Amino acid sequence: MSVTPKGAPKDADPRRWWALVIIALAQLMVVLDSTIVNIALPSAQQDLGISDGDRQWVITAYTLAFGGLLLLGGRIADLVGRKRTFVIGLVGFAAASAFGGAAATPGMLFGARALQGAFAAVLAPSALSLLTTTFTDPRERGKAFGVYGALAGSGSATGFVVGGLLTEYLDWRWCLYVNVPIAVVAVIGALALLDARPGQAGARLDVPGVLLGCGGLVAIVYGFSEAAPRGWTDPLVLGLFTTGVALLTTFVWWQARAPMPLLPLRIVRDRDRAGCFLTMALAIVGMFGLFLFMTYYLQVVLAYSPVQTGLAFLPLTASTVIGSTQISARLINRLPPRMLMAPGMFLAATGMVVLTRMTVDSDYATEILPALILMGLGMGLTYVPVFSTATAGVAPQDSGVTSATLNTAQQVGGSIGTALLNTIATTSSTAYLTAHLADPGGRALLAEKAVVHGYSVAIWWAAAAMLLAGLVAGLMITSRPPKRGATTKTGVPEAVA
Asked: Residues with Cβ < 8 Å from 426, sequence gap 6 or more?
């Protein structure tokens, strides 16, 4: 007779914590790939002869496919079964990574990155929905989401560290090859540890919803990715935005009438869940802009090596883990979610404001490090209640698409943040140069000052986005701390939801 650990549900799977390791490993792989290639990009560009105009596609091809196909991936997970799509996503992601690592031409690398994004769109919703259905007890759920939140918050920063080490000591191709052994371990663990629950019997895929929703998201994400190099008033950019808005508007109209909708509107009509989606999107607007600016600031202005740049992000990673696992996960069952999210966003915004004071010769220990720690703690406080609240009380047949919607908020927020803040930084730098051409000093120093000024202006906007995220969390999210056995919004006891 098996013994149930104290405080755990009687019917809990004793392997669930090992399952968490596998789910977390897969999620880490997906999050790492959003940044791990950034530091390797200069080496890959030189090796494959990629032009300056085309180099953005190494990043954009991934985010475009990932963000545009997430809703489809989430619904496939609900229809086919989460374990099956989880394994398919892992195998496909590994194969695409190996293909990209062996790329001999720019087109091969761009195609591989797009395939990675497509399989990530299947893998990420499956991972989060597996976590949601595996940990149903409120106390265990807080711990599990603490780990998941720590990975979501620190994974991007960890990508810089790993990318720097692999690029400097091995080769840029290993930034892609490294996914293969991780995926192999995760597949073996998934087959051995995860429960195979069937998908929805007799359910069909909403094909018009797929075309409208995914097409609209692709157009929006593509538009933001093209806004940085082309400008916001470029006809292509405006056309993409117009098309995207039109498709998504039609998508919402269709979802209210479709017999089996791709995104049931009841998911986004819920006030708490909608607040979580919006909070996440605004928070990521600020964080992705920060990653872009700090990478260039450390390497170009302060002349850090790839490894030094990666290590400089470690305090951000460590403080995010501490904020998620040691603070947020311990308080999530005692405080309302907004009492963690709103202060977390204020803390992160404060770190951003500290960074606006950086100069061409700032000292890392006294001027950069405190800001990174504040931002990490703030994001750690925010991620756990966002993930937990957004997925709480969701019917099992909707868990995949709910997870996909949350991931979509992250990807769209990241695309907006990168394009919007990069455009603000570039415009501000140009204006600074024009206004200070008569200043004494060399042209090189003036150019560096202009770049740093542009970063500072953009970071002010990033801080504003995070403050707005805190305001949204404080006003929209009204749920209370979960209680064991309490009834969720779907009328299912939380301990068995």
From this structure: 228, 454
